[in-house]
Fold Sugar phosphate transporter domain-containing protein.
Amino acid sequence: MGEMSGYQLGVIGALFLSVASSVSIVICNKALMSNLGFPFATTLTSWHLMVTYCTLYVAQRLNFFESKPIDMKTVVVFGILNGLSIGFLNLSLGFNSIGFYQMTKLAIIPFTVLVETIFLNKQFSQKIKFSLFLLLVGVGIASVTDLQLNLLGTVLSLLAIVTTCVGQILTNTIQKRLNVSSTQLLYQSAPFQAAILFVTGPMMDQYLTKKNVFAYNYSPIVLGFIILSCVIAVFVNFSTFLVIGKTSPVTYQVLGHLKTCLVLGFGYTLLHDPFTSRNILGILVAILGMVLYSYYSTHENKKKQSGDLLPASQVLLLFLFQLFPRTTSSSSSSFLNQFINQIFDFFKKNPFWRKHQK
C-alpha cells in the first residue's frame, strides 16, 4: 500500500510540476515578449536549455543524482531531434497564422497515435480515440481562430509535427529500454539541444523579427524576466521528461492541452485577455475529453495490469479531479459509461453515419 501511495504521489507530483511550471513560463514569456518587447523566442529557448544543463551539472556534482552513460550516437540524435522540434515549432508560428499554428499542435496527438500503432504495435480502443477526438475539438473551439494556409508554412508545420512526435516517443522509449531516469536523460541530451538552438536561434529570430538579439537594449526589468524565465524553464524541462517517462507521449499531449485551457483562463483572469462564450464552451468540451481519456485509459489498464500499482492514467484522472473538483460516485461513473456507450451505439446504427463512412 505504501508503494502504491508513493507511486501515485510521484506521478501526481510530476503532473502538478509540469502544469504549474508550464503555465508560469507562458505567463512570464508573454509579459517578456508582448509587454517588454523581447521577441527572440528561439534564442531564449537555447538559454533555457543551457541553464537547465548547468543546474543539472551542479546537482550531479552535489550527488543529487548519478550520471549514467548513454550511447553517444543515441544522445546526439535525440538531442538534435528535440532541438529541431523546437526550431520547427517556432518557424511554424512565424510563417503561419496563429490559428494554423494551434492546428499544428493539435495534430501531434493523432500523429502520435498513428506512429505508435504502426511502429510500436500499440492499440488504442474506439473509446480512447473518441475521448482524444473530443479533447481536440474542445481545444480547437477554444483556441483556433483564423486558418490561413501557405506552402512553406504547411511544410514547416509537418516537420514540426514529425520531429515533436518522434522526439516525445523516443523520450519515453529511451528511458524504459535503457533504464535511465528522466534526470539522467535530460542531463545527457540538454547540451546538444542547447547547442543547435544557440547556433541557429539568433539567425532564425533575426529572420522572423528583423531584429538582432545581440543589438537589443537589455534593461534591468528585461534581464530580470529573462532570468526568471530560465529558472522556470529548468522545472519545465525536468517535468516534461519526467511525465513522458512515467506516463506516455499521448498522455503528455493530453496534459499539454490542459495547460492550454489553464493558460486561456489565467490570461483572462490575470492579463485581462478577451474571453468569449466560445472559449468557455471549448474549455468545457476539452476538459470532458481529458476526463474521458483518463477514465477509459484507467478502465482498460485495469484489465491488462495486476498488482497494487495504479496505472499512470488513473493517477492523471485523480489529478484532473483535484484540479476540477466534482462529486464522484459509482453511480456517476456508471452513468458516464452508459452515456458514452449510447453515443457509440448511435453512430454504429445510424444510416447517415454508414452512408458517409465510405
